[in-house]
């Protein structure tokens, strides 16, 4: 028996129906990321609880580790039990936990509530990526994942936008943002429960190059997860992108704090700078995703975006220190988000297609393993970055993130896929 909110499709949706269901999956990604966002209020929360950056790093590391375990198992279970069966409860309960977060008045309470929230949320984010893949044939895969990145990116923008304009209205009380996040998330969860659907397991097992109505009702085995571990190029994807994610998560967790500590911006101004970078990133991923799909090329876009990110990050590191204008910081920070958007979406499509070629039934498992490894990296980031920052400033830690970008660039050698468009094959000559 399936829960009441599960709508399982036995015919692959096409046209506006597919686009609508893809949009609901993207909305679910937005909710999953938005309801656990803490970066916008982190400086205020640390002051209120008299908590050092090192202590916060330790709390966040343990809670993210819990979320990483949830992400790995959630992806595997979504291949067996279905996406929506797990997704809807994780989104709704995590949203409600924001009201608990608003009652926190000690470091210990923050720790336990964050562990609870990230354990529930961990499975949800990887499941939304699986749903996006399920509703995106390969000819539109990169653009579909571009909209999926509007989940984490859009969540950061939404949280920063709300905080930038509502914090002054509530006397800079961080509790106001937790309550706002809870209310907004629950409203969006209501829309998702009302409209969400998923393809059947038999439909998910099919590899579609282009949109077409396909019927599949037979039961299908979920596949063996160990099959994924036998392919080095998949590990190159997972480990290489984990190096790339060091920079993304540094900005996602500490972006406002970096702008405040290294360049002297206040909380509201820092949130507005972050919001601008996120807007550029959101536009870049859609444009690049469309170009990547049109050319059916992934690796060249990823390589170019990563090289530009490395150059911009090196310049940003050189800027760290007093006396830098706010306008200069804003431009470079925004460019970093723009260049990361160029690299990320084609990589996601490339990874999804490489995993699909190995075993199409295990898309959720592949994304779940990736999500788990990334969260282990986040744990290391949260534990290691505070002492590095205390010893050498934010420039020292950003140099570590720069090294992660280089690792990702080197790992691309192992990825499957073309570097140039395929040459058109001339039709054979007909002789009399």
Question: What do these coordinates show?
Answer:
This protein is mostly helical and 432 residues long. Helix content is 74%, strand content 1%. The protein has helices spanning 15-34, 42-48, 53-81, 83-101, 107-134, 141-166, 174-195, 201-204, 232-263, 267-295, 299-319, 326-358, 363-392, 394-411; strands spanning 8-9, 198-199. The chain has a two-stranded parallel sheet with strand order 1-2. The model has no long low-confidence stretch (mean pLDDT 86). InterPro entries: MFS, MFS_dom, MFS_trans_sf.
Offer a quick outline of the entry.
The protein has 432 residues and is an all-alpha fold.
Secondary structure topology:
Blueprint: E1 8-9, H1 15-34, H2 42-48, H3 53-81, H4 83-101, H5 107-134, H6 141-166, H7 174-195, E2 198-199, H8 201-204, H9 232-263, H10 267-295, H11 299-319, H12 326-358, H13 363-392, H14 394-411
Parallel strand pairs: 1-2
Helix pairs in contact: 1-5, 1-6, 1-7, 3-4, 3-5, 3-13, 4-5, 4-7, 5-6, 5-13, 6-10, 6-12, 9-10, 9-12, 9-13, 9-14, 10-12, 11-12, 11-14, 13-14
């Amino acid at each position: 028996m399936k829960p009441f909110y599960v709508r399982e499709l036995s015919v692959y949706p096409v046209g506006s129906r597919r686009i609508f269901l893809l949009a609901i999956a993207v909305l679910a990604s937005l909710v999953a990321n938005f309801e656990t966002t803490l970066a916008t209020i982190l400086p205020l929360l640390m002051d209120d609880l008299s908590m050092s950056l090192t202590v916060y790093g330790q709390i966040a590391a343990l809670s993210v580790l819990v979320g990483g375990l949830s992400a790995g198992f959630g992806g595997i279970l979504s291949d067996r039990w279905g996406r929506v069966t797990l997704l809807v409860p994780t989104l709704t309960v995590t949203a409600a936990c924001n009201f608990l977060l608003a009652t926190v008045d000690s470091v210990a309470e923050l720790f336990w509530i964050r562990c609870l929230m990230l354990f529930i949320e961990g499975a949800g984010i990887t499941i939304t990526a699986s749903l996006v893949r399920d509703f995106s044939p390969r000819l539109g895969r990169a653009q579909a994942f571009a909209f999926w990145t509007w989940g984490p990116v859009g969540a950061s923008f939404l949280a920063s936008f709300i905080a930038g304009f509502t914090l002054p209205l509530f006397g800079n009380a961080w509790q106001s943002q937790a309550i706002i996040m809870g209310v907004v998330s629950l409203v969006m969860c209501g829309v998702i429960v009302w409209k969400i659907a998923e393809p059947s397991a038999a439909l998910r097992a099919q590899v579609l190059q282009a949109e077409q109505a396909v019927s599949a009702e037979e039961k299908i085995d979920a596949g063996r997860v160990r099959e994924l571990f036998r392919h080095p190029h998949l590990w190159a994807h997972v480990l290489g992108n984990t190096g790339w994610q060091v920079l993304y998560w540094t900005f996602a967790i500490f972006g406002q704090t970096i702008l405040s500590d290294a360049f002297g911006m206040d909380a509201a101004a820092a949130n507005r700078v972050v919001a601008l970078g996120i807007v550029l990133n959101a536009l870049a991923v859609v444009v690049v995703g469309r170009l990547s799909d049109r050319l059916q090329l992934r690796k060249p876009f990823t390589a170019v975006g990563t090289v530009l990110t490395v150059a911009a990050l090196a310049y940003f590191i050189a800027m760290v220190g007093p006396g830098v204008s706010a306008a200069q910081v804003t431009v470079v920070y925004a460019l970093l988000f723009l260049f990361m958007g160029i690299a990320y979406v084609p990589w996601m499509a490339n990874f999804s297609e490489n995993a699909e070629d190995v075993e199409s039934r295990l898309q959720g498992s592949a994304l779940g393993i990736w999500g788990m490894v990334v969260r282990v990296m986040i744990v290391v980031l949260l534990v290691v970055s505070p002492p590095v920052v205390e010893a050498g400033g934010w420039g020292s830690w950003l140099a570590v993130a720069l090294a992660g970008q280089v690792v990702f660039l080197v790992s691309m050698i192992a990825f499957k896929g073309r570097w140039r468009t395929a040459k058109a094959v001339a039709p054979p000559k007909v002789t009399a």
